[in-house]
Amino acid sequence: MVENNSYMNLPKIHSISKKILVGALGAFLSFFLLFHASANLLILRHDGGEWYNAFCHFMGTYVIVKVLEIGLFAALLLHAGLAIWLAITNKMARPKGYHKPQRSKTHTGSKLQMWTGILIFACLIMHFTDFYFVKIGWVKGKYMVNTEELMKMKATQPAAVSFAEQRGELSAKGNWIANLTADDKAVLQEAGVEVEPDFYHQAREKFKVLYIVIAYLVFFTVVWFHLRHGFAAIFQTFGLYNYKYSRAIEVLGQIFTWGVCLMFTTVVLLVYFGL
Ligand code: HEM
């Protein structure tokens, strides 16, 4: 009897650990979003990409950051994969559904969560095409070179150095020659110059186009809905959402969700309006 009981409880235990993992990964991804949105504010500086590109260069240079990036992608896939698996196993455990239609807040929330999650994945394809795929060479974009590194080549490759100086734009403190095109990149790479993506000019160019701005505003709205429900759900999963703290969690959730989404939105809108 006991054995039978423990056997019957097995899938339940599994579901709970899956749910905890989905919550923990969701919390990690939320921190990433806060970090990402805050860093993006550097795009608003009119410094020719001095700060934002220095930040992106840092993110692309160090091994530890690269390991974190792999961890981030793994977390993203695992979070989505487990959430879908949970939804499918929950549905299979209750194939006929409830007799009365379910209208509880959590039920509607979880359903919304599934759809907004899928939409976020679709939006991420657009987002990666605009930025990340430029970095890994799948898509063409804007590029830059580090001035100090370039100057080391003045004696051996004077033509390439003056080419970069003529074609590109010097950032505020002169650390980067940026706003180079894919054709410029090809010429410079031919001469052995190390070229990297210039996400500052890339973002400033993209967010000048109305349909891209609208697509990103839709993206942020979907993120808003996903975070709005996800924030409280994380606390619920860890058993911290009770009558004593529910109000505080609600307020914190509002601040976090609006804060992150407004930071993303501010960048896109201010760039669009040329501010
Ligand atoms: C104004 C809005 C945004 C801008 C300007 C922006 C910019 C960027 C840039 C430049 C990169 C490449 C960074 C690099 O690889 O060095 C990137 C990567 C990424 N972004 Fe965004 N992003 C925005 C919004 C978002 C949103 C709303 C999400 C998620 C919901 C998101 C998720 C990601 C992820 C997962 C990566 C890949 C990881 C990485 O390379 O760090 N981004 N973004």
Walk me through what this model shows:
This protein has helices at 2-40, 50-61, 63-93, 105-130, 132-135, 147-151, 158-167, 182-190, 199-206, 210-237, 246-272; strands at residues 143-146, 169-170, 176-180, 196-197. With 275 residues, it is mainly α. It has two domains: 2-96 and 105-138 and 204-272, Fumarate reductase/succinate dehydrogenase, transmembrane subunit (3 helical TM bundles of succinate and fumarate reductases, Up-down Bundle); 143-197, no CATH class. Strands 2-3-1-4 form a four-stranded antiparallel sheet, sandwiched between helices. Helix 1 packs across helix 3 (63-93). The longest helix has 39 residues, at 2-40. Mean pLDDT is 88; it is low at 1-8. The chain binds protoporphyrin IX containing FE. Protoporphyrin IX containing FE binds at residues 33, 36, 40, 56, 59-60, 69, 72, 120, 127, 131-132, 135, 199, 203, 219-220, 223, 264, 267-268. Protoporphyrin IX containing FE is lined by residues 33, 36, 40, 56, 59-60, 69, 72, 120, 127, 131-132, 135, 199, 203, 219-220, 223, 264, 267-268.
